[in-house]
């Protein structure tokens, strides 16, 4: 296994060799897949949780397929911008292959995951049922509880 490729060229910090917890975005849904219990043991093995999600908009392309990573330390607060970005977002770091492909096609990165009550993004992943703020905070709690880098797989197949 190539830990540099899998671990975003940082195998010490970006590694989950068994892929036990990850987020998957398929264009319509953002799903948390948990194959193990967290340190607090709140979620049973095999549990998934999903939120309606989208990416892109009328004048913007969707986030490109690939592997991205985020962590509790990537949380950015957005006071006063609740309608468009929600109260916070998580910055997404591109894996090295995803970064190379994105640059070849002129995408500069800068992607985030965020909630909001108005549908539509400039290429980020937007998650919520577009009206229920509790869903936004539930994903935030899962990321903080996980407490480490979490892989975000974007796969439209």
Beta content comes to 25-35%
Principal-axes geometry comes out as globular
CATH class: Mainly Beta
Computed structural class: alpha+beta
Provide the low-confidence segments as ranges.
1-15
How many domains, in number, for the residues? 1
What value does the Rg take, in angstroms?
15 Å
Reported by name, the CATH topology is L,D-transpeptidase catalytic domain-like
Which percent bin holds the helix content?
Answer: 10-25%
Number of strands: 10
Q: How would you name the oligomeric state of the polypeptide chains in this document?
A: single chain
Q: How many angstroms does the end-to-end distance come to?
A: 24 Å
Query: How do the helices and strands follow one another from N- to C-terminus?
Result: HEEEEEHEEHEEHE
Overview of this protein structure:
The chain has 4 helices and 10 strands; from the N terminus they run H-E-E-E-E-E-H-E-E-H-E-E-H-E. The protein starts with a helix and ends with a strand. It has a 10-stranded mixed beta sheet with strand order 5-6-8-9-3-2-1-10-4-7. By secondary structure, it is α+β, with helices and mostly antiparallel strands. The longest helix has 14 residues. It has a single domain, classed as L,D-transpeptidase catalytic domain-like, CATH 2.40.440.
């Amino acid at each position: 296994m190539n830990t540099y490729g899998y671990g975003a060229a940082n195998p010490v910090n970006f590694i989950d060799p068994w892929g036990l917890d990850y987020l998957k975005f398929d264009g319509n849904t953002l799903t948390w897949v948990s194959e193990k219990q967290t340190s607090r043991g709140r979620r049973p093995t095999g549990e998934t949780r999903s939120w309606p999600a989208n990416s892109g908009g009328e004048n913007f392309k969707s986030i490109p397929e690939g592997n991205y990573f985020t962590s509790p330390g990537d949380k950015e607060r957005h006071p006063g911008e609740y309608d468009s970005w929600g109260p916070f977002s998580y910055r997404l770091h591109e894996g090295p292959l995803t970064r190379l492909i994105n640059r070849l096609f002129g995408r500069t990165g800068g992607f985030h995951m965020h909630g909001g009550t108005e549908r539509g993004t400039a290429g980020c992943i937007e998650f919520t049922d577009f009206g229920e703020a509790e869903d936004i905070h539930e994903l935030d709690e899962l990321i903080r509880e996980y407490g480490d880098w979490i892989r975000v797989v974007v796969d439209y197949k």
